[in-house]
């Protein structure tokens, strides 16, 4: 995947965050705002009536698959899905190209997750409909970065701040964590950012990502201590150790205990920071992830991220399928049910 991919718009694949400019990012976020009542199921929409999403997940997923599928269904479309290699013809040796051509013939848009970096671009090459990258190995995860930045704008604005000029700590597995690769690249569209990065030995940020960011005028400080990393920052973005992508040796190296917890934040004098994580959070003992003991802190934004994922993924589908906001309004009505418990 390179920087020469066409800008993300109607009829285009979404393979990398490098397809965004500040302008088309804003347009996407405006659509994400406009569909909020539908995302929150206060209103019902049939703009994608008759459209079919092909959802192909060859790696584990909960929120990405369910939120892409829910987003499509909330716009009135239908979903056909396959998960894992076992239940697809890839188990019989079928190539990516053949699978993609076949399934794209049944669908209007494909969402694909696959364990190999670059594989979703191969799906795109053979597909007759737009393909959205839902994660290609340690490569990219553009829809996650989009919902992360959408959330970040909202969380910062609640504190009368903006993304431009902000200071972020990016901590955890920065080598295999594709969400941070896409996030840092996408955030490079903003101005004057400072990233302080901390990772266990062997899981450092790839130099290609650091270069991408610094060449666009941002600062990257690498530190070897998590307290130092999170001190004084506006936002902390933590990631899980991607054990499924690493060898046993790396798995043993310094990745035990908590990556971040209440005491570390207290020691760094930053209990108010905005706390983000792409999830899933590995809550097993000693998993070296974000501890649950931060869950009552005021800056916890991890479930705002998951909720906002619906809005952003709806906006991605409306853009790639060329549906205007006017068409959405014309096909939206109030819901007729009440989903609240009586006191
Ligand atoms: C992430 C992923 O799959 O890259 N999860 C997600 O989509 N929200 C992060 C992870 O698995 O750690």
Protein model, in words:
36% of the residues lie in helices and 15% in strands. The protein is an alpha/beta fold and 343 residues long. The strands form three sheets. The protein has a five-stranded parallel β-sheet. It has a four-stranded parallel β-sheet with strand order 3-2-4-5, sandwiched between helices. Strands 1-11 form a two-stranded antiparallel sheet. Helix 4 crosses helix 5. The longest helix is centred in the C-terminal third of the chain and has 19 residues. The model has no long low-confidence stretch (mean pLDDT 94). N-carbamoyl-L-aspartate binds next to helix 3 and helix 7.
Q: Whole-Å distance between the termini?
A: 53 Å
Describe the oligomeric state of these chains in a short phrase. single chain
* Sequence stretches where pLDDT stays below 50 over 5 or more residues: none
**Structural class designation:** alpha/beta
| β-strand number | 11
Shape: globular
The average pLDDT is: 94
The set of bound ligands, ions and cofactors reads: N-carbamoyl-L-aspartate
> How are the strands ordered across the major sheet?
8-7-6-9-10
Query: Largest beta sheet, briefly?
Result: 5 strands, parallel
Helix content: 25-40%
Beta-strand percentage? 5-15%
Number of helices: 13
Order of secondary-structure elements:
HHEEHEHEHEHEHEHEHEHHEHHE
Rounded to an integer in angstroms, the radius of gyration calculated over CA atoms is 20 Å
């Amino acid at each position: 995947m390179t920087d020469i991919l066409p800008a993300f718009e109607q009829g285009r694949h979404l393979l990398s965050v490098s397809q965004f400019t500040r302008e088309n990012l804003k347009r996407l976020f405006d659509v994400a705002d406009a569909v909020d009542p539908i995302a929150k199921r206060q209103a019902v929409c049939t703009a994608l009536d008759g459209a079919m999403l092909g959802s192909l997940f060859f790696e584990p997923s909960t929120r990405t698959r369910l939120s892409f599928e829910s987003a499509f269904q909330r716009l009135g479309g239908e979903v056909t899905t396959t998960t894992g290699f076992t239940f697809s013809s890839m188990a019989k040796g079928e190539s990516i190209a053949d699978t993609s051509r076949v399934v794209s013939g049944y669908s209007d848009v494909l969402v694909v997750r696959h364990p190999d970096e670059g594989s979703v671009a191969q799906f795109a090459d053979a597909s007759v409909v737009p393909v959205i990258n839902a994660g290609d190995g340690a490569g990219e995860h553009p829809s996650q970065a989009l919902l992360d930045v959408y959330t970040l704008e909202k969380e910062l604005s609640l504190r009368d701040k903006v993304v431009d000029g902000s200071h972020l700590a990016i901590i955890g597995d920065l080598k295999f964590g594709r969400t941070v690769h896409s996030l840092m690249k996408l955030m490079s569209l903003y101005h004057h950012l400072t990233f302080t990065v901390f990772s266990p030995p062997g899981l450092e940020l790839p130099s290609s990502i650091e270069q991408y960011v610094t060449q666009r005028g941002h600062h990257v400080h690498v530190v070897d201590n998590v307290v130092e990393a999170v001190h004084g920052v506006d936002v902390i973005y933590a990631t899980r150790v991607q054990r499924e992508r690493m060898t046993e040796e790396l798995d043993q190296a310094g990745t035990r205990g908590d990556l971040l917890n209440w005491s570390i934040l207290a020691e760094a004098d930053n209990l108010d920071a905005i706390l983000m994580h792409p999830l899933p959070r590995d809550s097993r003992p000693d998993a070296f992830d974000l501890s649950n003991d931060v869950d009552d802190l005021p800056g916890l934004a991890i479930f705002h991220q998951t909720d906002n994922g619906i809005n952003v993924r709806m906006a991605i589908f409306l853009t790639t399928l060329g549906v205007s906001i006017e068409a959405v309004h014309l096909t939206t009505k109030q819901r007729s049910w009440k989903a609240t418990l009586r006191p």
